[in-house]
UniProtKB/TrEMBL annotation:
Chain ranges passing through the membrane: 60-82, 116-138, 198-227
SMART domains, per the entry: AAA
Subcellular location: Cell membrane
Swiss-Prot/TrEMBL keywords: ATP-binding, Membrane, Nucleotide-binding, Transmembrane, Transmembrane helix
Region (Disordered) residue spans: 1-27
Principal localisation: membrane
Domain ABC transporter: 400-640
Membrane topology type: Multi-pass membrane protein
GO terms, molecular function: ATP binding
Domain called ABC transmembrane type-1: residue spans: 63-365
UniProt protein name: ATP-binding cassette subfamily B protein
Matching Pfam families: ABC_tran (PF00005)
Length: 654
């Protein structure tokens, strides 16, 4: 759907034009065709909900199905029992006033009239008892199943999402798909279960009632089906409009949610306070809310007025047919019981028609959700294990070769890397430098095989990365990304997660912390390595940006990987901590190939090899001394930074 909210909703008009009603014929036949369409779409959705429900709990589903069938049949059975009772009473009155033979027939049995009344009353009692029990069974199993279905869906989504490529998460359309599946998973199953089983129940009630009426009088059956037509017209018009309204307002609601988040979460609170944005955001929220509620009010008023009008018409039709039936009874063509049965049947059929509509509309909506869910589950990762993966020669030495590697992000015209070739020999330390957006992080992501190159190939110890099992490859790489994760967990866990198998190996965690420079910091915390970091689950410690970076660096040292990849590992560290880290890195990088990105030339110059990227191309490569001699881009940037410290003329020029 095209968003009608201009821009972000943070500025500009909040008054969104009403969505255009799609042109459609409103004669009865077109309505009927539309009804058939939405009912068949809803029916198509039923098996999927039932399948999910079966997966979540086969026994509960069986009980629910049984209860649904029985409670679907119960209105017809109850009406029939009421008719039987009334007819038996009328018959008994007749027998006693006119002294006729005291006999009545109930199925294969011949009883006297009082026995007959008692038998019917007992049957009625049994029926009510069964219906009550089944209603309870239905409610309980539905309640239990909802949570399980929700859990099953969440599990499916999480399991699948954990296997998808990074590209999937970075694509906004697919990300929306995932977010929707995730967000709606807790609430949607409830309406799916209610909708699906309610629809089945209504269908059973509707058909059993019609069948019952047919046995008495086909004419009555026809009248009962025709009487709710006005209600049908009103519902068919507004059911879908309500759905469209929900769709149309979703961009407004999303923006309202966003505004709500901006003023209620700790992440954004600092800036919002400093720039005094709170009242402004609250006001935008209020304005968007006003538009939303005005539209909603208009729709519901219109709907209520119209459906009351059509409802009156339905009542009138009902009263006229009732009068006709009453007269038929007076002339003895129908019994009093038939009259009662008809009254109950018409109101039940009418109720069923309305329920069918709302059920079909609800299912239509649920179907859209399910479509998205299944679309998400059908998304296949592209970076997968080859059929016959090659093994890396043991021991893995960390020899990295890029051969004419090019890469473009999906939907982006400009390549992020083009024709990049270089070699890093085992044990070497390489620094990747370049201006913002030059392609440095992209190069790292390709090396970790989070993406595949669009051209050329990347070799590790002579093997093309695409021939390896990605999981096996990643076991040999330890990395720290620019946007690293700060887990809501203890300090030890935050480090240990770098090597899941050894997360509880405390000596190992401590030596990784020493390598990352976090040991002193962590032993100083109130509960040492067991101090929770972050405040989601426990009262934990709040670390500064640089302190977090040390913890995350330590995580990268958990793994004894031959390849270490660090994307701006020192961006938040103070000068002393940075110096210490590189001193340690020289020690620690023995026998392991290290690649790091840095904008600080003081650290870059220490690397064995420097790769200078510009607009996705490798323009210079060599040692610091070599590149300074070349006096190219690297030398220019280096001098610029150095001059800034020394207050030399180059800084003034810049
Ligand atoms: N997920 C993405 N989807 C589309 N384009 C991207 C994506 N990530 C990066 N880019 C683009 O690719 C180019 C290279 O980005 P990259 O992150 O590799 O740069 P960088 O050299 O690491 O920059 P910085 O120094 O700012 O971290 C940039 O033009 C960027 O806009």
């Amino acid at each position: 759907m095209i968003s009608t909210v201009p821009d972000s909703g943070l500025t500009g008009s909040v008054d969104i034009p009403e969505p255009e009603e799609p042109k459609q014929d409103n004669d009865l036949r077109s309505r009927w065709a539309r009804l058939r369409q939405s009912v068949s779409a809803a029916l198509r959705g039923l098996p999927r909900v039932v399948r999910l429900s079966w997966e979540a709990g086969p026994w509960l589903t069986t009980w629910l199905a049984l209860a649904t069938v029985i409670s679907g049949l119960s209105p017809a059975a109850t009406a029939y029992m009421a008719k039987l009772l009334l007819d038996s009473v009328t018959h008994a009155v007749l027998v006693h006033t006119q002294h006729l033979p005291d006999q009545a027939v109930l199925g294969p049995f011949t009883l006297d009239t009082v026995q007959m009344i008692i038998a019917v009353a007992v049957l009625q009692l049994l029926l009510t008892a069964v219906t009550t029990v089944m209603n309870t069974v239905s409610q309980v199993s539905q309640g239990l199943l909802q949570d399980r279905v929700s859990h099953t869906i969440q599990l499916k989504v999480m399991d699948h999402a954990s296997k998808l490529d990074l590209a999937f998460f970075e694509d906004s359309a697919s990300y929306d798909l995932l977010r929707q599946a995730q967000q709606e998973a807790p609430s949607r199953p409830m309406s799916m279960m209610n909708g699906a089983f309610g629809l089945i129940r209504t269908l059973i009630t509707f058909s059993s009632m019609i069948a019952l009426l047919l046995t008495i009088s086909p004419l009555l059956a026809a009248v009962a089906v025709l009487a709710p037509i006005p209600a049908f017209i009103a519902e068919s018009r507004y059911g879908l409009r309500t759905y469209r309204f929900a769709l149309w307002t979703s961009p407004i609601r999303r923006r309202m949610d966003y505004l709500g988040r901006l003023v209620t979460t700790d992440e954004d609170a600092k800036e919002v306070k400093l720039f005094g944005l709170g009242p402004y955001f609250v006001d935008r929220f209020r304005q968007l809310g006003k538009v939303y509620f005005a539209r909603q009010r208009k729709l519901s008023t219109e709907r209520t007025l119209r459906s009351t009008g059509w409802g009156m018409l339905t009542t009138l039709t009902g009263s006229l047919t009732y009068l006709y039936i009453a007269l038929e009874a007076v002339y003895g063509r129908l019994t009093l019981g038939d009259l009662l049965l008809f009254t109950q049947a018409t109101s039940s059929v009418q109720g069923s028609v309305s329920a069918l509509f709302s059920g079909a509309t609800g299912m239509y909506e649920n179907n859209l959700y399910l479509d998205n869910l299944y679309k998400l589950l059908a998304t296949e990762p592209t970076i997968t294990r080859p059929e016959r993966p090659r093994e890396l020669p043991k021991p893995v030495r960390g020899h990295v070769v890029f051969e004419h590697v090019s890469f473009s992000y999906q939907g982006s015209e400009r390549p992020a890397l083009s024709d990049v070739s270089f070699e890093i020999r085992p044990g070497e330390t390489a620094a990747v430098v370049g201006r913002n957006g030059a392609g440095k992080s992209t190069l790292f992501k390709l090396l970790c095989r989070l993406y595949d190159p669009t051209g050329g190939r990347i070799l590790l110890d002579g093997v093309d990365l695409r021939e390896l099992d990605p999981d096996d490859l990643r076991l040999h790489i330890s990395a720290m990304f620019q946007d690293y994760v700060t887990y809501q967990a203890t300090a030890a866990e935050n480090i240990g997660l770098g090597d899941l198998g050894r997360v509880e190996d405390r000596p190992r965690v401590e030596s990784a912390a020493a390598a990352g420079g976090a040991d002193e910091l962590l032993t100083g915390l109130s509960r040492g390595y067991d101090t929770p970091l972050g405040r989601w689950f426990n009262e934990g410690a709040n670390l500064s940006g640089g302190e977090w970076q040390k913890v995350v660096l330590s995580r990268a040292f958990m793994r004894d990987a031959p390849l270490l990849v660090l994307d701006e590992p020192t961006s938040a560290l103070d000068a002393q901590a940075e110096y210490d880290l590189f001193a340690r890195l020289r020690r620690l990088s023995h026998g392991r190939t290290t690649l790091y990105i840095s904008h600080r030339f003081s650290t870059v110059r220490q690397a064995d090899r420097i790769l200078f990227l510009q607009d996705g191309q490798l323009v210079e490569s060599g040692t610091h001394a070599e590149l300074m001699r070349v006096d190219g881009q690297y030398a220019h940037l280096f001098t610029l930074q150095a001059a800034a410290y020394l207050d030399a003329p180059a800084a003034k020029e810049a």
